[in-house]
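ENTRY TYPE: paired fold submission
RECORD: A
CONTENT: sequence, then structure tokens
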Amino acid sequence: MNWSAPGDEQSCGMAAPKLGGWDPFTPNEVAQVMRQAGVRWWVSGGWAIDLSIGHQTRPHDDIDIGVFRSDQEQIQRFFADWDVVIANNGRLRPWPAGKWLATPNNDLWIRDRRDGPWRIQIMLNDGGGDTWVSRRDLSIRVPCDDAIRVADGIPFLAPHLQLLFKASAPRPKDEADFVATIGCLTPRERIWLENHIRDLNARHLWLSQLRGASRLHR
């Protein structure tokens, strides 16, 4: 499948004008770049949801790529000829060569030229080797073979893990992603998500929908 968004969905209102606009790469374009980086990577965010479903369900303002924090030196070397900045608290600042980024510096914005739009958002994740670790809850550790799926040669974060990240403070687009995905989760994934959302908020509105989906798919 050609994971390309229509042209009118390529502009992004995510960033304030002072931070510059977005014209994000598609998953296919990101894959062409990241396959040469020599690190483990995966699509996350809303595009991960669409990759898990098998088709695009909504417009996307940007594209989030996860990499392990332990691979950041290789990421910095690989993107040495690009414009890479640290995004934190609504501000952008340069990433000095050789500077190690620890939490809360998790977010990198990348563009192929300094006067151009932003193309890729890279999120630094703890974990590494064979284990994926949630940035929202470091106690959640999942084998990479379970956490990272592949569609059309593009790795992406498993939908139940992505939805848990979105569940902490769901925005309208997160609600849309949940509705689009809930029927595609396996029984094991629904139970896992329900249990972890209950730990997050026992009154979360998604819990009743997850229970209803479980009864429907028995």
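RECORD: B
CONTENT: sequence, then structure tokens
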Amino acid sequence: MGVSDSTFAVYKTLEISMIAVVEAMTGKLTIARADEVIKGWADALVRRARIDLHTRVEGPIDWSRTYVIMSNHQSHYDIPLLYHVVPATMRMVTKKELFRVPLWGRAMREAGMVEVDRQDRSQAVASLRAAAAAIAQGVNIWIAPEGTRSRTGALGPLRKGGFHLAREAGAPILPVAIRGSREVLPAKTAIVRRGARVEVTFGAAIETAGQDQSALMTHVRSFLERHLER
């Protein structure tokens, strides 16, 4: 059962990648159409895994505003989970290695995802500028400030890039804690486990204008730790 679920996830990912590439080539891949395709993919993966999903909102969220969404990162399933629960246009900043995957990488570029190479400072700066431009156009940007998946579920050190982006773009940070996703697809495995309980908690938006970067990092880390250690 687990293997077939994993195969389904791969199939659906290839399917939306092909749709994105073909529609981009024919000029049909608008932001709204990309949203529809990504949302359909995310909903299908969440349903197939029969995730026992619990979503909480701790503070009012005005989705007419644009946010830098920051979450912890436990599993590849964080991506479909977030696209499943966020009711607005969202694109992600992700490592260059994912863009090297045939078809999937091109599809991500066509859909407006932002590639970042942390080893190349000039490219990393260009990526942040691209993300800031997307925010100015009303696109929410998701970034995992840990920079990589946690192997144990514990929260790792937070990197500064996303906080710098939020301050430069003048966008509020929307913290999101994801608890339990590593039980759906643990690190270093390709087997999807059905029926895992996952909690996704949205915090109150954190204004960044005039705020100290260190204070913002402390605020986000405190929120994430509070919800992961329960």
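NOTES ON RECORD B: The chain has one domain: 2-228. The two ends are 31 Å apart (CA to CA).
STATUS: closed
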